[in-house]
Design goal:
Helix 1 packs antiparallel against helix 2, helix 2 packs antiparallel against helix 3 and helix 4 packs across helix 7. The chain contains seven helices and 15 strands. The N and C termini lie far apart (77 Å). By secondary structure, it is of the alpha+beta class. The chain has an eight-stranded mixed beta sheet with strand order 4-3-5-6-7-8-9-10, sandwiched between helices. Strands 12-11-13-15-14 form a five-stranded mixed beta sheet, with helices on both faces. It binds 6-O-phosphono-alpha-D-fructofuranose.
Length: 345
């Protein structure tokens, strides 16, 4: 009796990320393959980081380097490794002209005629690394604006989110998934890594955010620092009102990638509003808010800072912060209603 094959016969194999990217390229008239090649590089770097993340508890990678990054946060070895991995792979790949990373004060300008500029948070949620809670990588891809015969500059990166060509994230959770979109009608698609063969397979095709959800995700430890409208919204979403499906359930991981991923798949709302400690919000516009705003809008959701559409914010600096409210369109609109009422009061 032959042992069952470890893998389904070829005819049953799912679509790999590489095949999906190539299919998307085939539907883009005039595509040269540069963008496709960059997405391959990001997927490769994701696999390399995944392999380290999975070993973190064993390979004594949990220690602190004793240094701090531009955010003033303790840099854990995995943060550094992830940053170096994505930088090295993208630099070698020859498709990028500039990279902005949460881990670096200044942008990395890459010699050559790379056509794309990348903003990234190489390892989001690093404070959760040593307690084995999901962490992630976030990326956004812009088309270069500067003359390719000249060195790239910050203007190639400081573009509003509405000009993103693609965005995505990797969540290193109970399984590792890469989710990306090239915007518009191309949809949002999720790929799950089969670690036994190192391949991402299409597992969540054309993700759509439900019109409304049943969970809210916010750090209520900040309640005493919130403004009045946020406090009133938080009370409203917890009030008992069967007709509107309230109270919503509370879900908060403390890793943006994990809280946003759940909200993208299940609906509901994630909010990191401004507060007295972070009057501009805590999360970063260029490599946290914009990529997720791009993805949520591509999946039929919404993303605002409480009043303004995130993707319309004209960036002033690489590390600028913004309040972030993302989720189901109805749930984000409910949050906004409180903010607008307060403004009009
Ligand atoms: P708080 C992680 O440090 C992070 O940058 C995001 O991933 C997460 O959403 C947020 O901070 C959590 O912040 O203040 O609730 O711990």
């Amino acid at each position: 009796m032959q042992p069952p094959s470890l893998h389904p016969p070829p005819s049953k194999l799912g679509i790999t990320l590489d095949q999906h990217i190539r299919n998307q390229m085939a539907m883009s008239p005039g595509a040269t393959g540069h963008f496709t090649s960059l997405l391959y590089q990001i997927a490769l770097a994701a696999k390399l980081v995944d392999s380290q993340v999975r070993k973190a508890g064993l390979a004594n990678v949990l220690g602190y380097t004793g240094e701090t990054n531009v955010q003033g946060e303790e840099v854990q070895k995995l943060d550094e490794m992830a940053n170096e991995t994505f930088l090295t792979v993208m630099r070698r790949g020859g498709r990028v002209c500039a990279i902005a990373s949460e881990e670096l004060e200044s942008a990395v300008i890459v010699e050559g005629n790379g056509r794309y500029a990348v903003t990234m948070d190489p390892l989001d949620g690093s404070s959760n690394i040593d307690v084995n809670i999901s962490i992630g990588t976030i990326f956004g891809i812009y088309r270069r604006k500067s003359d390719p015969t000249e060195p790239a500059n910050d203007a190639d990166l400081l573009q509003p989110g509405r000009d993103l060509r693609a965005a995505g994230y990797i969540i290193y959770g109970s399984s590792t998934m890469l989710v990306y979109s090239t915007g518009g009608k191309s949809g949002v698609h999720g790929f799950t890594l089969d670690p036994t063969i190192g391949e991402f397979f299409l597992s969540h095709e054309n993700i759509r955010v439900p019109a409304h959800g049943s969970t809210y995700s916010v750090n209520e430890g900040n309640t005493s620092r919130w403004n009045e409208s946020t406090r009133r919204w938080a009370e409203w979403v917890k009030a008992d009102d069967k007709e509107s499906g309230r109270p919503y359930g509370a879900r908060y991981v403390g890793t943006l990638v994990a809280d946003a991923h759940r909200t993208l798949l299940k609906g509901g709302i994630f909010a990191y509003p401004a507060d007295r400690k972070s009057p501009q919000g805590k999360l970063r516009l260029m490599y946290e808010a914009n990529p997720f705003a791009f993805l949520f809008e591509a999946a039929g959701g919404r993303a605002c800072d409480g009043r303004r559409r995130i993707l319309d914010i004209e960036p002033q600096s690489l590390h600028q912060r913004t309040p972030l409210v993302i989720g189901s369109p109805d749930d984000v609109s409910d949050f906004e209603r409180f903010a607008v009422e307060e403004a009009g009061a």
